[in-house]
Specification:
The chain is α+β, with helices and mostly antiparallel strands and 392 residues long. It has 3 domains: 2-179, no CATH class; 200-249, no CATH class; 288-379, no CATH class. The chain has 12 helices and 12 strands. The strands form 2 sheets. Strands 1-3-4-9-8 form a 5-stranded mixed beta barrel. 23% of the residues are buried.
């Protein structure tokens, strides 16, 4: 069972309160500037998710099962980038872990919220969607009226990007992000009771140690009315022959400097946008394998067709990740067409049957014709090195 959810606005202090002091200290010992994100991973009401072996189904979550879900989430539960074919974690690389959890009422619905520490090597990923992988018991009169009767085990949480993932819970929202880095504080000096009195020298020292600017201590009017500053300004004005010219030159140089900074920032933004698109594309490409497994069964492909296609799966690059399945279906049609053309070059005619989704019939298979008897050495893979029989 997989349940997808997203994040909603939540104060950093609320997220930090979900984590024990001991756990936060442990995290900071391993990560100087940790990033911790809070996700809603379940709430009462209907949710759509993938039931392994059956596909997407709709089921209802009641309050007691949301509480049960929250109880079953252990501290240290591993986070992964995307789902695997099953809920087995063998061979998967964790990108973070659960460090806290809490039940909250959000939009009048009880919700299970988890705090997730993203490991430093993966904090750059655009992760804003979470999907729980769990073993649950479902009951109901039929598949359209299922409800969660029990939560047995939570095996992991898959994180992804909302541009290519759709949350299973319609009310799931982004909660917030905590950057638990060390904060610098400033000394604030003032006169109060006897324990807080400061001499002028102590006050100056405190301001210097705090690296405060005069404008941070006094208003502009007070600074401008100070006799020392007024005299200094008047002297500068009197002796500033050619001041306007020099200022114009400075402003011209400053303008050129700012224009260059704008260009540099635009370049960085474009690079960041390209990197984001590349990440979205790479995430989409990881789904090609499971899509092919589904299409292989749908189209009833034979062994030679499977090997021929597998050798060319690496050539597929989706243009629109959100239309991945549609583009991959067209790509398979083109590969099978090329397979037929290549086979006929060597004297084998391939009878291509229509797509079962469009006609209701089965897949395709090679058919030897009278023009190409099996004794022909040019169509025997063992004798003709031009025929590929295994994946590249």
């Amino acid at each position: 069972m997989r349940i997808r959810a997203t994040l909603r606005a939540m104060a950093s202090s609320e997220i930090e309160a979900m984590i024990s002091a001991e756990k936060l200290a442990e995290i900071k010992s391993r990560d100087r500037n940790p990033i911790i994100k809070a996700f809603v991973v379940g709430h009462e009401g209907e949710a759509r998710g993938n039931l392994v072996g059956y596909g997407n189904i709709v089921k209802r979550w009641f309050v007691d099962m949301v509480k049960r879900l929250n109880e079953k989430i252990p501290s240290g539960l591993q986070l992964f980038h995307g789902h695997a074919a099953t809920n087995d974690n063998a061979g998967r690389v964790p990108i973070g872990e659960v460090v806290g959890k809490k039940l909250l009422n959000i939009k009048d619905r009880l919700s299970s919220v988890v705090a997730c520490w993203i490991y430093p090597d993966y904090r750059h990923l655009p992760l804003d969607v979470a999907s729980i992988e769990a073993d649950v018991d479902l009951e109901g009169d039929d598949k359209d009226k299922l409800y969660v009767a029990d939560v047995n085990e939570i095996t992991g949480i898959a994180l992804g990007n909302s541009e290519i993932e759709t949350p299973g819970f319609p009310g799931a929202e982004l909660l917030g992000q905590l950057q638990a880095m060390a904060r610098r504080s400033r000394i604030v000096a003032f006169k109060g009771d006897n324990n807080m009195d400061m001499t002028l020298a102590e006050l100056k020292k405190a301001i210097q140690e705090s690296k405060l600017q005069p404008s941070e201590v006094f208003d502009q009017e007070i600074l401008a009315s100070d006799p020392v500053i007024k005299e200094h300004v008047q002297e500068k004005i009197k002796n500033a022959r050619g001041y306007d010219v020099r200022q114009y030159e400075k402003l011209t140089d400053k303008k050129a400097e700012l224009e260059q900074k704008v260009k540099d920032l635009e370049t960085k933004i474009q690079a960041a946008e390209q990197e984001k698109q590349n990440l979205v594309l790479e995430t989409a490409k990881t789904k090609v394998g499971p899509l092919f497994e589904t299409q292989k069964e749908k189209r009833k492909l034979d062994e030679k067709q499977v090997k021929y296609i597998q050798a060319r799966l690496g050539d597929f690059t989706p243009q629109k990740p959100e239309e991945l399945e549609k583009e991959f279906d067209v790509h398979l049609d083109n590969i099978l067409k090329k397979y037929k053309e290549d086979a006929e070059v060597f004297g084998v005619t391939i009878e291509t049957k229509p797509d079962p989704d469009k006609t209701g019939n089965g897949g395709t298979g090679p058919v030897d014709t009278k023009s190409a008897p099996i004794e022909n050495k040019y169509v025997d893979p063992a004798k003709n090195p031009m025929i590929r029989t295994d994946a590249a």
